Amino acid sequence: MKRYNYKAKDKKTGKILKGNVQAENENIAGRLLIDQGYIPQSITEEGTGLLGGKTRITTKDRIMFTRQLSTLIGAGLPLAASLRTVTEQTQSKSMKSVIEEILTSVESGKTLYDSFSQFPDIFNGVYLALIRAGEMSGTLDLALKRLADQEEKDAAMMSKIKGALVYPGIILVVIIAVLAFMMIMVVPQVENLYKDMGQQLPELTKLLVNLSNFFDHFWWLVLLIVGGVTGGIWYAVKKTAAGRRVADNFKLYVPIFGGLFRKLYVSRFARTAEMMLATGVPMLDSVKIAIDATNNVVVEDEYSKSLDIIKGGKALSEALKDRNFMLPLVPQMASIGEESGKIDEMLGKAAQVYETELDEQINNISTMVEPILMVIMAGLIGVVIGGTLLPIYSLVNNVAV
Questions:
Q1: Which residues of 331-345 are buried (b: 16+ CB within 10 A; e: fewer)?
Q2: What is the pLDDT of residues 312-340, one digit of tens each?
Q3: Residue range 101-118: average pLDDT?
């Protein structure tokens, strides 16, 4: 069932009304309005914009929904009543529309897992697997709580990583702004000064003048090239398998950040496997879902080699040992868990270790990157100064002599 917003005229009163209706498609929605005595003027599917794209459900919306549903179910409220209550409390129109469709599906007799499965773009494999396990084991409230906790941790981690990149980004903008100012305002003045005095420009200054003239006359071409390259990279990474593989491989080896990303993927794997196993998901399924949760195709391909080893009857610790991009603490803790019968707890502790290290490393990113950026800025500005101020100084000395 889809939800449609409509604008219609009441046949009896002639008033223009606005509202929404649930139907299989737009034609059926129109017939429902006609049956109610309305003349449809416009019918649009809820959640679509001017360009026809779906309204985005934010991570915050999903986390709030998951936590509220967990609390209500844990308090003993029936599933349908819990969903109805969450719908009333939800502020996001797009999220409310999704919950209403889930509620309709549940009330028609479908399981919560089947109802959530209608929205794979919103609820990923980890989410759906935990919902299914929670329903089967009767611990749906705990499964939802684990989901909300983990999504909050992931969101906080990604927010920290983005925040750590803000300062280096500001430094880069300052570098570009200073260079642009020098090239636009200072370099042409130096060229005019040499022309007025009939002197030959130094080679470095000639290079800067040529660059300045090029940007002055072909700035539109530069913007076009930068925009085209940026758009091409974005398309390749987001829309093509080869582009995403290159980007994911780059993340693993890029200086400074490569180690950070490796710890991020390992902690995601361990934390997801912990949740799956703790909720009663079988080992092989838990590992498959945990591998998908890393969200890096290169890491997924490498970790997936462990699946055949597990199918062959070997332990998880043995399957993970010597895997590329797998940090040693995870198979070690898995081995301890296998011996003690608490493998989920041990994987959780391994994830906690790497999450703590990630926090510290993220906090130190600015400290690590700042010296490199300063050296780059000093070098670039030094070249510009060398091609502008030093020739002026030399010219003044020649005139004085």
A1: bebbbbbeeeeebbb
A2: 989 999 999 889 999 999 999 999 999 99
A3: 88
pLDDT digits (tens, 9 = 90+) for 360-390: 888 787 677 777 877 887 887 787 777 777 7
Domain range annotation of the chain: 2-45, 59-154, 257-363
Share of the chain above pLDDT 90, in %: 24
- CATH C-level class of 257-363: mainly alpha
Structure confidence at residue 51 (pLDDT)? 38
Question: Looking at residue 155, what DSSP letter applies?
Answer: H
Q: Distance (Å, rounded) from C-alpha 232 to C-alpha 312?
A: 43
The predicted model scores a pTM of 0.69
Residue 263 is which amino acid? K
Q: How many C-alpha atoms does 231 have within 13 Å on its Cβ side?
A: 6
- Residue in 195, 88, 73, 87 with CA at minimum distance from that of residue 138: 73
The CATH architecture one would assign to domain 59-154 is Up-down Bundle (1.20)
Distances (CA, A) of 15 to 31, 33, 92: 19, 14, 28
Is residue 52 scored above 60 in pLDDT?
Answer: no
Q: Determine phi and psi for 342, rounding to 5 degrees.
A: -125, 50
| DSSP label at residue 184 | I
Write the single-letter amino acid at 108: S
Confidence of residue 31 (pLDDT cuts 50, 70, 90): confident
Q: Spell out the residues 6+ positions from residue 364 whose beta carbon is closer than 8 angstroms to its own.
A: none
- What single letter denotes the amino acid at residue 194? Y
Give the integer Cα–Cα distance in Å for 86 and 66.
Answer: 9
136 CA to centre of own chain:
31
Between CA 84 and CA 38 the distance in angstroms is: 28
Residue 291, pLDDT above cutoff 80: yes
Long-range contact pairs involving 12-17 (C-beta distance under 8 Å, separation at least 24): 12/37, 16/41
Single-letter amino acid code for the residue at 233? I
* Local structure of 119: helix, strand or coil: coil
Nearest-5° Cα angle at 139, 135 to 140: 55
Question: Which of 162, 175, 177, 179 is closest to 366 using CA atoms?
Answer: 162
* Domain pair 59-154 / 257-363, same fold: yes
Count, residues in the chain: 401
